[in-house]
Design goal:
- By secondary structure, the protein is α/β, with parallel strands linked by helices.
- It has 24 helices and twelve strands.
- It is flat.
- The two termini are 24 Å apart.
């Protein structure tokens, strides 16, 4: 709700510019957005139809292509009859392998095999010249398009034709993997449906045949090679065994023992020497620890790491004596005879403990010496045995070499003999790594172009262009459609937005207001009434001028509606028809007035006599029965101000319906004597330049309007939609 606003230039609101912003200009209102689209629906529909038409014409000029599809599957589940390793390994189906097989299916090697199998005559349609025209395609469909190919003369001509066909087939061929599965799809698209099915099926069959033929050839070659190699290895094994046996007999006679026995003895002695060294290290560590403790802390400290029955008994005796001494020490000092005897006994026990520890030290020393002797003896024996093993090993090098040769020859012979049996068995059981899972069929309709889809896409594209054009037209408009726009341009607040109705005249609008006094239109007028009449800041009535930039902006309709609402609010109201050149209020309602405004201006009657009262309206009227162009030229503040002073003395609200500002200057004169000037702007109709120019004309008189009222607003406009959802009941 707006209170009464000061005139332009008074300081409350900036004149022009962007000083007033009642709402976020950059916000997006979906309902308003769709309303704007609906207003420009003819543009969008026209672009949609043009897009459909252009797409239909374009698709009619394109040669139809027929697509046929076949599918092969790489089978990771292999049936095993023989549980042996295959001569030619099966595919380990993985992402890389499947991608590799996709590349194989589109390779020129495979395509050349297909061409060789089908022949040039059956592929005459796919020559290197490219796709045929629409006429040729129709002839091909009815069987009239094929011509006998030229005679092939020489290898160069065959190579040229093959290369051209490979290029043409590759252009029409598409191979891809079905998602993450092991299925590979093969699609061929040509102008001939039969040829598409033939090529798609032939490529799949040739791919599977090549796999099977390659595996069989590899197994056959491997079997022949293994047979020859087995015969060679059999002779090598026999010869190596004879040489090894002869060398073994000679070596046993010379050395008296075998290398295996000597090596076993050496291993055993080496283990025993390691244990002896470990025992010596342990004994030495114990001895060193005992000496370190004695040197650092004395004999008594050594007693904690050395144990023997004697030491345990002496320690217990010493503890008992120390306990007795502690008991006597509670009463007597060290000079007491009993405590002296106890001290002597403790010293005697300490001496015995020291003697026992010395004995234990000597024992540890002897253990170290014994371990040293044992290690030295065993090391000498080990050295002698190592020498013997070296001598035997040097004599047995030749034997080992011969034995290794025999073992290798035997192993290779046995492996190849087994492999030969497996290969001969597998030669008859070979199968391809892929199998056909979908056979190519002759298509019944072209796959491209798809007329319905192309036309739909053309229509959508046209609709998108139409939407863009509609938004451009909306954004580049020269009229005002929102409060934010007009407030930003003029710096004046919008006091109300009055919706448009079905009425054709001010009288029809007034009757509509009487029929629905609580409708949307009535509530918008109440809003304007509240904004203008609350609060009252001066004694007497309020004079309000309503004007606009150009005619037909709803001034008279709004004036009458505002008068009606003010009267319903308990106000005494009078409407003054100030459009003296084109006075129409009296003719609209058909009043029979004895005196009118013209009589008052010509001083033929008093102001009270010129006022007309219609009991049906609820307010008074001051109007002219005929246009008064001369009186309009005589408008002056000198006689207007007393007239308004008289009217505001008797009426709470005086409403002045003024002519358009850009048409005549009457409104500028009237604005000098009224309390409030309201500027009406027709929604999406009045040019912005006209509004700004009309408002600028008031600046010269320092009597600018207090606010703006937007009239004839589309009820579907976002600002009106909220009011439409709310209804009053009486």
């Amino acid at each position: 709700m707006y209170n009464r606003m000061p005139p332009r230039g008074s300081g409350s609101f900036p004149v022009g510019g962007h000083g007033f912003n009642a709402e976020d200009v950059d916000r997006v209102d979906l309902r308003d957005l769709f309303a704007k689209i609906w207003v420009r629906r003819k543009v969008v529909l026209g672009c949609f139809l043009v897009g459909c038409l252009l797409a239909g014409v374009a698709v009619s000029q394109v040669t139809p292509l027929y697509s046929s599809l076949s599918k092969v599957m790489l089978d990771p589940r292999k049936g095993r009859i023989l549980m042996t390793e295959a001569v030619v390994s099966d595919l380990d189906v993985s992402q890389q392998v499947v991608n590799s097989e996709v590349a194989v299916l589109s390779s020129n090697v495979l395509i050349e095999s297909v061409i060789k199998d089908l022949g040039f005559e059956r592929l005459a349609l796919l020559n290197a010249a490219g796709h045929p025209s629409l006429t040729t395609s129709i002839k091909n469909l009815v069987g009239l398009g094929y011509k006998k190919p030229d005679a092939v003369t020489g290898a160069a001509e065959i190579a040229r034709k093959t290369e051209g066909l490979v290029s043409a087939i590759r252009k029409s061929l598409t191979v891809w993997r079905e998602g993450e599965s092991y299925v590979i799809s093969i699609r061929v698209e040509t102008p001939d449906p039969k040829l598409s099915a033939l090529l798609a099926g032939s490529i799949a069959d040739q791919y599977i045949n090549n796999q099977l033929t390659g595996r069989q050839d590899a197994v056959e070659k491997a079997s022949t090679w293994i047979e020859d190699r087995v015969a060679e290895l059999r002779s090598d094994v026999e010869k190596a065994e004879k040489e090894a046996e002869k060398y073994r007999s000679t070596s046993l006679i010379l050395n008296g023992s075998s290398l295996e026995n000597a090596s076993a003895q050496l291993f055993e002695m080496n283990n025993r020497l390691a244990l002896a060294k470990a025992d010596r290290a342990t004994a030495q560590a114990r001895y060193n620890q005992l000496l370190t403790v004695i040197n650092a802390d004395g004999m008594n400290a050594a007693a904690t790491i050395v144990t023997s029955p004697m030491l345990e008994a002496l320690n217990e005796q010493r503890i008992a004596l120390m306990h007795k001494d502690a008991v006597w020490a509670e009463r007597y000092d060290a000079t007491h005879p009993t405590r002296k005897n106890l001290a002597n006994e403790i010293n005697s026990v300490d001496a015995d403990i020291a003697n026992e520890i010395e004995k234990q030290v000597e024992v540890k020393k002897n253990e170290v010496a014994t371990a040293d002797i044992l290690v030295t003896s065993m090391a000498q024996s080990l050295k002698e045995m190592e020498q013997q093993v070296i001598e035997i090993s040097s004599n047995a090098v030749g034997l080992k070499e011969l034995e290794r040769k025999v073992a290798v020859s035997q192993q290779a012979y046995e492996d190849l003999l087994t492999r030969l049996t497996q290969t001969q068995s597998q030669e008859q059981l070979q199968r391809a790594d892929a199998k056909l899972v979908e056979r190519a069929t002759i298509p019944g309709a072209p796959s491209s172009p798809r007329p319905k889809l192309v036309v739909a896409m053309g229509g959508l594209t046209g609709a998108a262009i139409g939407l863009a054009l509609a938004f451009f037209m909306e954004l580049s408009g020269t009229t005002f459609r929102t409060e934010a726009e007009i407030e930003a341009e003029t710096g004046l607040p919008v006091l109300a937005m009055i919706p448009a109705g079905d009425w054709k005249s001010p009288r029809a609008a007034y009757r509509e207001l009487e029929r629905t006094p609580h409708g949307v239109y009535a509530e918008r007028i109440r809003h304007l009434r509240t904004a203008l009449l609350t609060p009252q800041k001066k004694d007497g009535g309020r004079s309000i001028l309503l004007t606009s930039s150009v005619p037909m902006e709803g001034k008279t309709t709004t004036t009458l509606a505002l008068a009606k609402m003010a009267a319903l609010a308990g106000k005494s109201v009078i409407v003054v028809d100030c459009d003296l050149r084109r006075s129409s209020l009296q003719r609209t309602f058909g009043w029979e007035m004895e005196w009118d405004l013209a009589d008052f201006i010509h001083d033929e009657c008093s102001l009270g006599d010129a006022v007309y009262t219609d009991p049906r309206l609820g307010f008074d009227v001051l109007a002219s029965t005929d246009p008064l162009p001369k009186a309009a030229d005589e408008l002056s503040e000198k006689w207007l101000k007393p007239m308004l002073a008289m009217l505001t003395r008797f009426y709470d609200v005086v409403l002045l319906d003024a002519p358009p500002t850009l048409a005549v200057s009457d409104a500028l004169v009237l604005s000098q004597v009224v309390d409030t000037t309201i500027y009406l702007v027709r929604w999406d109709e009045t040019p912005r330049s006209a509004v700004l120019k009309g408002l600028a004309s008031f600046d010269e008189f320092n009597s600018g309007p207090s606010g703006i009222v937007m009239t004839m607003v589309d009820p579907k406009h976002s600002a009106m939609s909220y009011a439409e959802e709310y209804a009053y009941h009486v």
